[in-house]
Design goal:
Elements: H1 6-63, H2 82-86, H3 90-99, H4 114-121, H5 126-138, H6 143-159
Helix pairs in contact: 3-5, 5-6
Protein name: Lipid droplet-associated protein
InterPro entries: LipDrop-assoc
Region (Disordered): 73-97
Length: 160
């Protein structure tokens, strides 16, 4: 018996493979969503890695064209502050802030809520408000309290 031509044998092999795959399809469909999500996540991570690698290579190439700044604009140091230039002792300033107590008018300041404090602000002097602000910054440093006190101080200064 003479063997069948190669294209016929390949076609028969493809048909058998298609039938086998069709029989496996119901089992594969159950895991398909997980497989698709996994493949998508892997692809996105590979894309992110490639983009990061390209950015690093670009930074390296461009760094040769641009001289590096000795000190970036955003970098600040304790020595750069105005207090250091004026010769003020930062430790003494911190001690004053820590020693700042609320004015006698508001001895219960630390237990007040924001609305309770707001109700009492109009009766305080500028010096009392500044004392409260220093106390707040040195102790709790709650943004809503410091903001409200700062605005009240600014309003009083604008009025005088």
């Amino acid at each position: 018996m003479k063997p069948l031509p190669l294209p016929v044998r390949v076609a028969a092999g493809l048909a058998v493979t298609a039938v086998e795959q069709a029989r496996k399809l119901p089992r594969q469909l159950v895991g398909l969503p997980v497989t698709v999500v996994s493949e998508a996540l892997q692809l996105s991570m590979r894309v992110q890695q490639t983009v990061t690698e390209l950015a690093i290579k670009g930074d390296d190439a461009l760094s040769a064209l641009r001289p590096a700044d000795d000190e970036p604009e955003w970098a600040t140091f304790d020595e750069d502050g105005e207090d250091a230039a004026a010769g003020a002792d930062p430790w003494a300033e911190e001690e004053r802030a820590l020693a700042a107590e609320p004015p006698a008018a508001l001895l219960d300041y630390d237990s007040l809520t924001l609305p309770q404090l707001r109700a009492k602000l109009r009766g305080l002097s500028l010096a009392d408000l500044e004392s409260l602000l220093a106390h707040e910054r040195a102790h709790a440093a709650r943004p809503e309290f410091t903001g409200m006190l700062s605005r009240r101080i600014a309003n009083l200064r604008a009025q005088s």
